[in-house]
Every structure is written in structure tokens, then in C-alpha cells.
Design goal:
six-stranded parallel β-sheet, 363 residues
Length: 363
């Protein structure tokens, strides 16, 4: 079986990128001929990781500014002919692949994974029509959770026969041998309490409310933000205006996120909505408390209300303070996180994806 995975790009700290990298490597381990097509092949540590694993990578361009060129659609259409299954992830790659299927005379099985539980295009009267067309070009649509499936059926009227749920998953041993930094190595005092949020500085992530919460917390609580994105300048301005420059550190894109997760006191994910957050699952294996917004895509992953906060500064500050001051709560949080993360094993997920590929090929 030859499978072509397609995603727009592989930006550092992107959950979608990490998902695709994990899936491609695992499929290759199963002796499936799996290649990756990138619309934008800009350098990243994910790209380096795939090259080390001898995965064949096809890039349409580097530093792409206009994703919607007819030339890209034609190239994708030609490439698809060489594969049994095409598996596409994330907008705008989904649009390009849908358009490419129109140009193809010979049909190829196309699978799409919907990674998010909310999509503004699907709720806009005009874009909704485009979304319905795009989804109609896919043989199978995989949703990461019940919330994602419910959103798709409610807003795009997709037949349930075309949909299925395969939950995100992780390698439970990925962080086992990772050695944490000391606080001194990170430039902090032992008395400092470190929070880490590893996520792109873009919506739907809610870095803003987390930064506001820092204003309510003691001086020795410091926030590390691993990731980059279009909101960086706006967030840096917010930090400056709140007088938090010495307490909030922008780390940029990092390839040592796992090591950072094991080095801090608390891992945090503040977001407006998620599909099924890979970053959350990874953080829950780090042996440190993980707390998150009480929103779709995070609530059912964490489950325990003691580790969920509302998206307001006071709620976040109260939960962080409770964890810092209550050793028993910290131990309980670590145990809860470890137990929950064990339910999301990547090998089980990969088996399900292979099952979908085999199913669409039969049809």
C-alpha cells in the first residue's frame, strides 16, 4: 500500500505537524510506503526528524506566500496518481486536495482528518457552501473526538456513514528518557515556580488570558511560552504594559519541548477550543501537573475538574496557586495525568488508520 500524507507545512510546536510526523513514522515502521507532501517545505525540526527517519518528503515550494496557485493544484493532482491512498490534514491543504480531485480522471481514495472542534468557515453562510463541496470530495472523514464529529454533522450536514472517530494518541514512552533542565540551566532560581505553555502564538490558543493571570500571581511565578506565530508582537506588548517583562519569557520555536515539559513545575494549555490536543497528551506524560482550559477538546481529555480552569485570569491564578501551595494536590495531579495519558496509545491509533485505508481501498 502506498500512502501520501499531505499537510500545508510543519511549523514547530504545531500539534497538527507533530501528529503527521508521528503517524508517518509509525506507518513506515509497519512497512507501509508512506511519503509526505508539503505545500510549504520551510525548514523545521519536524522536517529534520523525518529526514533522519528516511521518510521521502516532497515540497511544492519554500516560503510560500500564496497557497492557492493553480500550479500547486495541478502538481498535487499528478502526484496523487502514484498512490493508493491520499491522507490530507488541515486547511488550506484540504482545499487544494479537493480541487486536485476535480482535475483527476482516475479516482484515488482520499481520507481527511478533521483536527479541530470549531471551524469559522463552516459557520459562515458563504464559506459553508465551499466547505460542503470540499468535504464531498473525501471518501472518509476522520474526526479526533465526539465534539469534532458533532460540529461537522451539525454545520456541514455530512452523512454519518462517511465519518468516523479516531482519537489522537501519543507514544507513552516518548518522554521516558528525556533529561530535564535544572532551573539554573534555564536561568532561574530554585525558588522560582515555572509554568510552561507550548503552543503556537495564534488563535484558537488563548495566551492573552494566561498572561493576565500572571499579574495576579506572586513574583516568583514565571511563565515560559514555547512557540511562535502572528500574535507574538501583540502578546509581547501586553506583557510590557502589565510590567511582566521579567516574568514572561518568549522562547520561540523549540525542538526541546519534551525536555522543557519535564523541567517546569506546571504545564499549562490555555485555549478557546481544541480537537484533541496532542500537546495536552504529551504534557500529561511529563510527570508534572498539567492544567488546561475547560473547553471542548480539553475537558474530556483532562476530565478531572480540579485540573481545569475557566478562561479568566482569576480562575487560572487560583488553580496555579493551589498547585504551588498544596503538595498533595500536585502529587494527585501527576497521578491523574499519567492515568489519563495511558488511554491514548499511538499504536492503537495507527491500527485504526490502517483499517480506514484498507476500507476505502475496497470501496
Amino acid at each position: 500500500m502506498k500512502v501520501l500524507q499531505i499537510i500545508d507545512s510543519l511549523p514547530a510546536t504545531s500539534g497538527g505537524a507533530r501528529f503527521v510526523v508521528n503517524l508517518v513514522k509509525k506507518l513506515a515502521e509497519r512497512k507501509i510506503d508512506c511519503q509526505l507532501l508539503l505545500i510549504d517545505g520551510a525548514a523545521s525540526h519536524f522536517l529534520d526528524e523525518l529526514k533522519l527517519a528516511n521518510i521521502k518528503i516532497i515540497s511544492l515550494d519554500d516560503g510560500v506566500k500564496n497557497r492557492y496557485r493553480l500550479e500547486y493544484i495541478r502538481k498535487i493532482s499528478c502526484l496523487m496518481s502514484s498512490f493508493d491512498v491520499v491522507h490530507v490534514h488541515v486547511f488550506p491543504a484540504s482545499y487544494l486536495v479537493a480541487a486536485a480531485t476535480v482535475l483527476k480522471k482516475n479516482k484515488v481514495a482520499v481520507v481527511f482528518t478533521e483536527h479541530s472542534s470549531f471551524n469559522r468557515r463552516a459557520t459562515h453562510w458563504a464559506f459553508k457552501l465551499i466547505e460542503k463541496f470540499v468535504y464531498s470530495r473525501f471518501n472518509r472523514i476522520i474526526c479526533l473526538s465526539d465534539q469534532v464529529l458533532n460540529f461537522v454533522t451539525k454545520n456541514l450536514s455530512i452523512s454519518l456513514e462517511k465519518l468516523c472517530i479516531i482519537e489522537n494518541a501519543i507514544d507513552p514512552h516518548a518522554l521516558t528518557n528525556v533529561v530535564p533542565y535544572s532551573k539554573k540551566e534555564l536561568g532561574y532560581e530554585e525558588s522560582d515556580r515555572l509554568l510552561l505553555m507550548s503552543a503556537r502564538l495564534t488563535l484558537p490558543k488563548n495566551h492573552k488570558v494566561l498572561i493576565e493571570a500572571m499579574y495576579l500571581l506572586p513574583e516568583n511565578v514565571k511563565l515560559l511560552l514555547a512557540g511562535d506565530g502572528i500574535l507574538k508582537e501583540e502578546l509581547q506588548t501586553q506583557v510590557y504594559k502589565l510590567g511582566l517583562t521579567g516574568r514572561v519569557q518568549f522562547l520561540g520555536s523549540r525542538k526541546d519541548v519534551f525536555r522543557l515539559m519535564k523541567s517546569v513545575d506546571i504545564n499549562v494549555l490555555s485555549s478557546n477550543f481544541e480537537g484533541l490536543s496532542l500537546a495536552a497528551l504529551e504534557a500529561m506524560t511529563a510527570g508534572k501537573p498539567f492544567i488546561a482550559s475547560n473547553v471542548e477538546g480539553l475537558d474530556f481529555v483532562v476530565q478531572d475538574p480540579r485540573l481545569l480552569f475557566e478562561n479568566n485570569p482569576k480562575s487560572i491564578a487560583m488553580l496555579v496557586s493551589d498547585l504551588i501551595n498544596n503538595e498533595q494536590l500536585r502529587k494527585t495531579a501527576v497521578e491523574i495525568c499519567a492515568e489519563r495519558s495511558e488511554k491514548y496509545d499511538i499504536d492503537v491509533m495507527v491500527d485504526k488508520y490502517i483499517g480506514v485505508y484498507e476500507e476505502v481501498l475496497k470501496k
